[in-house]
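INFO batch 0412 | record 1 of 1 | parsing
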Amino acid sequence: MFGWTRPNHVAVLHGDRAADCARLHATGFPHPWDALDFERLIGAETSFGHAAVDTRDPRRVLGFILSRRAADEAEVLTIVVDPASRRQGVAGRLMQANIETLSRYGVRSLFLEVGEDNAPARRLYAGLGFAEVGRRQGYYRQAGSAPATALILRRAVG
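INFO prediction complete | emitting tokens
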């Protein structure tokens, strides 16, 4: 413990990280967004993003989250963590930072969608207080298999 430092810290996500976001997004989703998509989303007035940055190499993004606010509600648009950094609490810290920011902007409810078959993410979201409020059958296209069901989750903020 003495001399130990957390290998990452969470910071506000800026547009200069769009290419990093596109690269990471491709590691977690079969239909990834490109750098221009991320530039536009990160720069939108209603978007809120955070990045987990490697403290040993601040140029390296280990994960990120993007959400969008509408009145007193928000939706997590995407969250992804580098495969080598998964299961180390990065996603939880990203979610917490995003939730705290959304709360300061008056958000009262936060929604997200997760694949019914994504057990690790479902455990994370349940631990953060999210509960199922709906389903979208056949929502996620998957190569070589039937489309997966998306669970719509919600939690109170603030």
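INFO post-check: The chain has a mean pLDDT of 91.
INFO record closed
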